[in-house]
């Protein structure tokens, strides 16, 4: 068994095998789509392809209903129309394997040995969840690659490239914008502790610490990339681009059942006067947690980004299983520093799946059997939030950073 | 004199032709009337939950000519919708073709959308068999929560209207008591034709009621309170642990 694991985690074998598995599933998916009623390919892939088709006809990709992504994605997928419809899936699986490679490089930079790094990588590369998601035609792997690329550049102190990749990832999906605070905190000038802790002077020193060349460079390049892309697509597609790519996601209130603990509350109050206030109340825990996480862990950017994304997804007003990949791609960066035993780790994993299972049961009965299970879905959503919070607390409590900054003793 | 005789004969011949054509026309229109009266339309809704299938069966008169076109007109309530993209992919695999009269909002709740009409052509090309079966997938919309402790809401789906057309009965006349209606000639929607619409009494069954679950509005207070309490507690617990284990 040990020999098998060692063989599998040799660099070339691992990366080749993970690509071949994904490719085989893409081929199988094509076969299933042609022969069976239940399709392998995700509906999103058809949305992307239809939008790409509109672009090849010189029209706006937003002519395709429910296309709520950047036009860049539809442009990237135009070979789906010109060459073969499978092009997009190949692109996604390549990005998926590339994400694995980026995880490997980041782990090496953080001081992990080659063999250990490859074993951790295998958790992503041979994981059925990302394999399934990218071979079915979801574009999450592009964003995973961009976010991991940003983190690699930050770790290697290639700030300009990091800024470019960061600007690009925020353009593609809004959620990486939350990383701005920990990145800014990590790039500010760290000063020696002064004894002069008077309120005003301390505050001024704090503000001044943000005014340095590195932070300025990062902010201007990232903002420049983002604004340039936004301006270009606004010029090409107008207000519809801005609304579908950004505003829709910022104001999204999906009252249909989803993993979010807020779903039933938002459904019952959708047309009431309280709706806006409740939306704001739902935003507060997310905001508080993101601020605390940024301040507490900004010196370890990978861990901080992982926490940010998990918090963002778990406390969001809408949560679908696609969102889980946003933080799962960062989990391999955290795992080597966890002092949890294998048993504890597997226990938490089973708990996480159990939480999903407890939600999926009543959701199935509602959607496909027509039972009124709204109350059960609501309770399962709350339980899933509790489980996610518990898992995050365990991760935070058992995280051992490798850097020299001291860990504050538990008070 | 001969000239007069020839012109009278020519006149008589053309009058005879017109009368014959009119007679044939009346014959075909009469047949059309007979076919529409003897056709039966029945509808069944299968599957459960928010994703159903509407199965429409049309039994035409056995003596229906091959040149007759059939159109099924569904008037859908706002509580359900069809997915145009799903229909497009299904249409590639089946005989029937469909046109929608408006853009469909795939995500809106029932009280914020309107009903719509679909034109289904069971056999757009080729001869018309006497027994037609069309299955259309429909999806239920979310409805407003109920504040009177009702756990389900009812959506009434009417069976489709049957319309027939034949080029041999043009223009349509003498098809009383049936109505004449303008509708697209084919699924290409490039021209409009006059179709004979079957009277309501000839449908085998009346409308079908479909039940969809709705939220319980009377639980609004406890649900909001419970949700905000749990999320705040999780927020406090997680913040506390993150602060305790912060890395300086």
Automatic annotation (TrEMBL), chain A:
Q: How does it sit in the membrane?
A: Multi-pass membrane protein
Enzyme class, broadest EC rank: transferase
Q: In which pathway does it act?
A: Glycolipid biosynthesis; glycosylphosphatidylinositol-anchor biosynthesis
Instruction: Name the InterPro entries for this protein.
Output: PIG-M
Q: Is Hydrolase one of the keywords?
A: no
Query: What positions belong to coiled-coil segments?
Result: none
Q: What family is this?
A: Belongs to the PIGM family.
Compartment annotation: Endoplasmic reticulum membrane
Matches recorded under Pfam families: Mannosyl_trans
Q: Which GO terms fall under molecular function for this chain's record? A: alpha-1,4-mannosyltransferase activity; GPI mannosyltransferase activity
Q: What is this protein called?
A: GPI alpha-1,4-mannosyltransferase I, catalytic subunit
Q: What does this protein do?
A: Catalytic subunit of the glycosylphosphatidylinositol-mannosyltransferase I complex which catalyzes the transfer of the first mannose, via an alpha-1,4 bond from a dolichol-phosphate-mannose (Dol-P-Man) to the glucosaminyl acyl phosphatidylinositol (GlcN-(acyl)PI) intermediate to generate alpha-D-Man-(1->4)-alpha-D-GlcN-(1->6)-(1-radyl,2-acyl-sn-glycero-3-phospho)-2-acyl-inositol and participates in the sixth step of the glycosylphosphatidylinositol-anchor biosynthesis.
Membrane-crossing residue ranges in chain numbering: 12-29, 81-104, 215-237, 274-293, 324-342, 349-368, 374-399
GO CC, sorted alphabetically, is: endoplasmic reticulum membrane; glycosylphosphatidylinositol-mannosyltransferase I complex
Organism equals: Gymnodraco acuticeps
Any one biological process term the GO annotation gives: GPI anchor biosynthetic process
List keywords of the entry alphabetically: Endoplasmic reticulum, Glycosyltransferase, GPI-anchor biosynthesis, Membrane, Transferase, Transmembrane, Transmembrane helix
So what EC number does this one have?
Answer: 2.4.1.-
From TrEMBL, chain B:
GO CC aspect terms: endoplasmic reticulum membrane
GO-annotated biological processes: GPI anchor biosynthetic process
Q: In which pathway does it act?
A: Glycolipid biosynthesis; glycosylphosphatidylinositol-anchor biosynthesis
Q: Where in the cell is it found?
A: Endoplasmic reticulum membrane
Query: Which UniProt keywords are given for this protein, alphabetically ordered?
Result: Endoplasmic reticulum, Glycoprotein, GPI-anchor biosynthesis, Membrane, Signal, Transmembrane, Transmembrane helix
In the bilayer, the protein is annotated as:
Single-pass membrane protein
- Which residues are the signal sequence here? 1-17
What the entry lists under InterPro entries is as follows:
PIG-X/PBN1 (IPR013233), PIGX (IPR040039)
- Task of the protein: Stabilizing subunit of the glycosylphosphatidylinositol-mannosyltransferase I complex which catalyzes the transfer of the first mannose, via an alpha-1,4 bond from a dolichol-phosphate-mannose (Dol-P-Man) to the glucosaminyl acyl phosphatidylinositol (GlcN-(acyl)PI) intermediate to generate alpha-D-Man-(1->4)-alpha-D-GlcN-(1->6)-(1-radyl,2-acyl-sn-glycero-3-phospho)-2-acyl-inositol and participates in the sixth step of the glycosylphosphatidylinositol-anchor biosynthesis. Probably acts by stabilizing the mannosyltransferase PIGM.
Which family is this protein grouped under?
Belongs to the PIGX family.
Return the protein name. Answer: Phosphatidylinositol-glycan biosynthesis class X protein
User: What organism is this sequence from?
Assistant: Gymnodraco acuticeps
């Amino acid at each position: 068994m040990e020999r098998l694991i060692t063989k599998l985690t040799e660099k070339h074998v691992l990366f080749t095998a993970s690509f071949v598995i994904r490719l085989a599933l893409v081929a199988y998916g094509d076969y299933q789509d042609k022969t069976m009623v239940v399709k392998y390919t995700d509906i999103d892939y058809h949305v992307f392809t239809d939008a790409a088709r509109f672009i090849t006809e010189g029209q706006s990709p937003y002519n395709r209903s429910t296309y709520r992504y950047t036009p860049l994605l539809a442009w990237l997928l135009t070979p789906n129309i010109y060459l073969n419809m499978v092009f997009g899936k190949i692109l996604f699986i390549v990005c998926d394997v590339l994400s694995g490679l980026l995880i490997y490089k980041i782990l090496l930079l953080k001081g992990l040995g080659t063999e250990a790094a490859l074993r951790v990588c295998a958790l992503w590369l041979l994981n059925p969840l990302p394999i399934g998601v990218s071979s079915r035609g979801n574009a999450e792997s592009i964003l995973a690659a961009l976010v991991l690329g940003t983190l690699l550049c930050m770790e290697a102190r290639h700030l300009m490239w990091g800024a470019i990749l960061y600007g690009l990832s925020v353009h593609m999906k809004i959620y990486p914008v939350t990383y701005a605070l920990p990145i800014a905190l990590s790039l500010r000038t760290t000063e020696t502790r002064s004894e002069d802790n008077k309120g005003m002077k301390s505050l001024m020193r704090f503000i001044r610490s943000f005014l340095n060349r590195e932070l300025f460079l990062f902010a201007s390049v990232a903002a420049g990339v983002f604004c340039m892309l936004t301006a270009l697509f606004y010029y090409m597609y107008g207000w519809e681009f801005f609304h579908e790519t950004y505003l829709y996601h910022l104001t999204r209130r999906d009252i249909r059942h989803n993993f979010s603990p807020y779903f039933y509350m938002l459904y019952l109050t959708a047309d009431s006067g309280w709706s806006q206030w409740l939306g704001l109340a739902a935003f507060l825990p997310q905001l508080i947690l993101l601020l605390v996480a940024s301040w507490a862990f900004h010196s370890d950017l990978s861990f901080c980004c992982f926490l940010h994304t998990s918090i963002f997804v778990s406390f969001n007003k809408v949560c679908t299983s696609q969102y889980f990949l946003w933080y799962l791609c960062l989990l391999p960066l955290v795992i080597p520093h966890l002092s949890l035993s294998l048993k504890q780790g597997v226990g938490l994993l089973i708990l996480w799946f159990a939480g999903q299972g407890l939600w999926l049961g009543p959701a199935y009965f509602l959607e496909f059997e027509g039972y009124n299970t709204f109350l059960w879905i609501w309770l399962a959503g709350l339980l899933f939030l509790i489980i996610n919070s518990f898992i995050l607390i365990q991760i935070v409590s058992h995280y051992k950073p490798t850097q020299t900054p001291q860990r504050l003793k538990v008070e | 004199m001969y000239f007069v005789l020839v012109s009278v004969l020519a006149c008589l011949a053309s009058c005879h032709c017109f009368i014959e054509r009119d007679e044939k026309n009346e014959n075909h229109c009469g047949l059309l009337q007979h076919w529409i009266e003897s056709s039966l339309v029945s509808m069944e809704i299968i599957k459960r939950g928010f994703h159903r299938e509407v199965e429409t069966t049309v039994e035409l008169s056995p003596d229906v000519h091959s040149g007759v076109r059939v159109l099924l007109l569904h008037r859908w309530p706002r509580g359900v919708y069809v997915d145009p993209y799903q229909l497009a992919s299904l249409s590639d695999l089946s005989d029937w073709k469909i046109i929608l009269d408006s853009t469909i909002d795939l995500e809106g709740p029932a009280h914020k959308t309107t009903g719509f009409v679909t034109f289904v052509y069971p056999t757009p090309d080729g001869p018309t068999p006497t027994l037609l079966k069309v299955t259309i997938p429909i999806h239920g919309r979310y409805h407003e929560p109920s504040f009177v402790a009702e756990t389900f809401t009812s959506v009434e789906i009417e069976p489709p209207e049957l319309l027939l057309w034949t080029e041999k009965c043009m223009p349509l006349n003498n098809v009383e008591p049936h109505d004449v209606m303008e509708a697209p000639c084919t699924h290409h929607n490039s021209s409009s034709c006059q179709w004979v619409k079957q009277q309501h009494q000839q449908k085998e069954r009346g409308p079908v009621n479909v039940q969809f679950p709705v939220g319980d509005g009377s639980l609004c207070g406890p649900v909001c309170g419970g949700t905000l309490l749990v999320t705040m507690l999780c927020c406090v617990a997680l913040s506390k642990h993150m602060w305790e284990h912060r890395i300086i």
